[in-house]
Each structure stands twice: as C-alpha cells, then as structure tokens.
Amino acid sequence: MAQSRRIEKVAALIRRELSELIINGIRDERVHNGMITITSVEVSGDLQHCKVFISIFGQENQKENVIEGLEAASCYLKGELGRRLKMRRTPEIKFHLDRGIEKGSTILNLLSRLEEERKERGDIESKEMNDSLNNND
C-alpha cells in the first residue's frame, strides 16, 4: 500500500512539472498550436515508464502536430524531470491523446438535441403542468 501512495505522489509531481515545462520550457511551435491539458499521468510500479494522457483543443491536424512536437521534446522533458524531481532513474515518457472530453461534449450535444426534438413533438410536458399534477395528489 505504501508503494501505491508513492507512485501516486510521483505521478502528481510529474503532472505538475510537465505542465510547467510544456508552458514555459518547450520552444517547439508545434506544441503551442493547440490548447493542451494533461488529463492524467500513469506511472508503472517500477517507476520506469510513464503514460501522459493529454487533451488537445483544436483541429485534428493541429492535434497530430502537437503530439509530434511533444514526442520530439520527450528527451528534453525527461532530462528536466530528472533534474527537478531528483530521481535516480527518470521514467520514459509516452504521450497519449485522451479523447474523453471530446466524447463527453458530443454526448451532451446529442442529449440536448434529443430534448429539443422531444419538446417540438410535445413528448415532454411543461414544468407547470407537472407541478400542478403533483400538487393535486
């Protein structure tokens, strides 16, 4: 259990430092083409590998360019992480695109559209009618 807390702590530190490095440390223009959010960081039990899940706001070709820029800068990021966190062995960093936010917004849009269609057809009663029926019972 203690090792699990340590791994979670290392993942949180890596997430914080990578956020700082992406904003201020990387000079590659490809990385700054989209708005990047680090959604989560997973570190292996032996602290040798690190998966960084990122969400990128922008066009599909911009997302590909950002991922390429981050992969090109991964050696720099690994070196800086090693210096900042003072780890004996810094994990290898792999970036993965997290599409969870996109899927969530798509589902919300579909639900909104469905609600509008149901209102147009009259499938949904007005709130006043529901309130009056509930008060009469």
The whole-angstrom Rg is 23 Å
- What percent of residues are in strands? 15-25%
CATH topology of the largest domain: GMP Synthetase, Chain A, domain 3
- Relative helix content: 55-70%
Chain-averaged pLDDT: 83
Report the end-to-end length measured between terminal Cα atoms.
54 Å
Helix/strand layout:
Elements: H1 2-24, E1 35-43, E2 49-57, H2 60-72, H3 74-85, E3 92-97, H4 100-121, H5 127-136
Parallel strand pairs: 2-3
Antiparallel strand pairs: 1-2
Helix pairs in contact: 1-3
Structure, described:
By secondary structure, the chain is α+β, with helices and mostly antiparallel strands. It has 2 domains: 2-98, K homology (KH) domain (GMP Synthetase, Chain A, domain 3, 2-Layer Sandwich), CATH 3.30.300.20; 100-137, no CATH class. The chain has 5 helices and 3 strands. It has helices at 2-24, 60-72, 74-85, 100-121, 127-136, and strands at 35-43, 49-57, 92-97. A 3-stranded mixed sheet has the order 1-2-3. β1 and β2 (49-57) form a beta hairpin. α1 packs across α3 (74-85). The longest helix is centred in the N-terminal third of the chain and has 23 residues, at 2-24. The radius of gyration is 23 Å and the shape is elongated. The mean pLDDT is 83.
